[in-house]
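Table S4 entry, HTH cro/C1-type domain-containing protein.
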Amino acid sequence: MFKVDFDQSVTMDKVPSTSAADALQDLMAMHHVTQADFAQHIVISQKQLSFILNRKAYMSITVAKRIEQATGVSARLLAQLDFNYRLAHEDGGDSILVTPFDWANA
């Protein structure tokens, strides 16, 4: 295993465009699994899965763990994909002007 020094990380200029929904859609297509069958395997409703796949809702940690149990795809990877996607596409939410500290690298 290798160690990563996050203080020495390199910033990326690319905006993450892949979410857990994309990964699941690819996986389902590759294995010819329907939404109904996938939902049944991970014990959620087909409607809930549809919301996740269409990015109307993000998956919970519980759902990510169920997907890991059913498919072997890491729950951590799915959660990280969703987090990165949400962070990259979030508009900030509110219009409050935050005043940065002088020492902050904003």
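Residues 1 and 83 are 24 Å apart (CA to CA).
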